[in-house]
Amino acid sequence: MNLLFDFIPFQDAGGIGGAAGFTKAVLDEIVRRKNDKVQLFAIYDGSVPVGRLYDYRTLAEQYHITLLNISQKPISEMIAEHHIDVVFISVGQFYGRYNLTGITCKTIMFIHDIFDIEAADNRIELAIHDANIESNWQWTKRLVNVLSGRWNRQRTKNYRNIMSLYAAQNTIPYTVSEYTAAALRYYFPEINSIRVCYSPARKVTMEEHIHDTKLRQLIEQGSPYLLLLAANRRFKNAHVLTKVFKRLQSEYPELHLLTLKYGKSIGSHHIDIPLLSESDLQYAYIHAKALVFASFFEGFGYPPIEALRYGTQVVASNTTSIPEILGNAGIYFSPFYPAGLYQALKKVLSTDCTCSTAMQERYTAVSQRQEEDLRKLVNELLTYNGCLYIQ
Question: Tens digit of pLDDT per residue, the chain (391 long)?
């Protein structure tokens, strides 16, 4: 059996965060369970740089995977040339620019979210602006793109290409939450059925020491801090937290804010780090007073579940897939209302009491489903013509 795997999520700009973590977890499980009759190939794009979290070239060498360059030939030609039996596309949103025609073999394809389609529909772009990291000129250009319909036309074209394969008879369509499945059915009724597979847990080996100097100093000084990840992405809604943080400082002068990739500091108690190793990120979770997950959109959302693993309180938006994944273990607020986030954070900062039982129960429930869903997915990936190719 020849399996063509998706390495594009390992590359920039997708080569960090949830997409890369999801893809790596699936790859590791396939390698662990497949038998010696399975030959692995992988799609990469030679015109795109190597990602910062995983080097796909190292992974290919480690797992004896043959790399195939999608910038040189379409997938259909790869399938014919290498007698591919099963194609796995880990993150379908990254494939709008590629030729997906002529793929007739068994295909398993994930779409993790369609926030760009939803954003175009509810015009939320008109309400999002962070003057700390986006100039007025950048904001004006973005508004022109939204109001002129240019972005909407681009997204429609991209998804027309993606959905032609996602809804094809030879494709088994997957997504990562019941919310995203509902959103896909709402906007693309031509899809007959969608399987939901929770994003698998990312395996991390914690090192003995913290390598990032800023993080190590913050933890050693013992000051309470709030944690926000992927702060450079508009839909992660860093703006509402930076605004509320400034208000909270008058009441909690020792409070700090730790962000990843925000790109700018808003004060002496704000620490911004461009990138943390997976091990250092775990330390950031462990010592945080709370993880703030202020997103407008999420397909699944790794950080809340990863924070719950360590008993760290999660203050989260009450939108899209977040309540589905976090359940009753989070403190919720509307991402449109700073006062709502202020109220939620006051609850965390004013008491040492946390919902420890609810957090542990929710983490256990989700992690068990992640494990079971991953097992079923890998079984599907390693099944061809009714034969399951596992050890």
Answer: 999 999 999 997 655 678 898 999 999 999 999 999 999 999 999 999 998 788 999 999 999 999 999 999 999 999 999 999 999 999 999 999 999 999 999 999 999 999 999 998 888 988 889 988 899 999 999 999 999 989 888 888 889 899 999 999 999 999 999 999 999 999 999 998 999 999 999 888 899 999 999 999 999 999 999 999 999 999 999 999 999 999 999 999 999 999 999 999 999 999 999 989 989 999 999 999 999 999 999 999 999 999 999 999 999 999 999 999 999 999 999 999 999 999 999 999 987 656 788 999 999 999 999 999 999 999 999 999 999 999 9
The residues, any chain, with a CB within 8 Å of residue 331's CB and separated by 6 or more, are 313, 314, 315, 316, 344, 347, 348
Q: How many CB atoms lie within 10 A of CB 175?
A: 30
The CB-side HSE value for 260 (13 A sphere, CA atoms) comes to 21
Determine the Cα–Cα distance for residues 16 and 217; give it in Å rounded to an integer: 25
DSSP assignment letter at 49: P
Nearest one of 90, 92, 107 to 56, comparing CA atoms: 90
What is the reported pTM?
Answer: 0.93
Q: Among the residues of the chain, which ranges form H helices?
A: 18-33, 56-63, 75-82, 115-122, 136-147, 150-166, 178-187, 213-221, 238-249, 278-287, 302-308, 322-326, 338-349, 356-381
Q: Which residues contact 65 (CB under 8 A, 6 or more apart)?
A: 5, 40, 41, 42, 59
Residues linked to residue 333 through DSSP beta bridges, in sequence order: 317
Sort strands 106-110 and 86-89 into parallel, antiparallel or unpaired.
parallel
Of residues 118, 192, 125, the one with CA closest to residue 159: 118
**Sequence-ordered list of residues with C-beta below 8 angstroms from that of 64, at least 6 positions apart, any chain:** 40
For the chain, give the longest Cα–Cα distance.
Answer: 66
DSSP for 170-223? TEEEEESSHHHHHHHHHH-TT----EE-PPPPPP----SS---HHHHHHHHHT-
Residue 385 has phi, psi (to 5 degrees) of: 55, 40
Pairing outcome for strands 225-228 and 2-6 = unpaired
Distance CA 178, CA 206 (A): 31
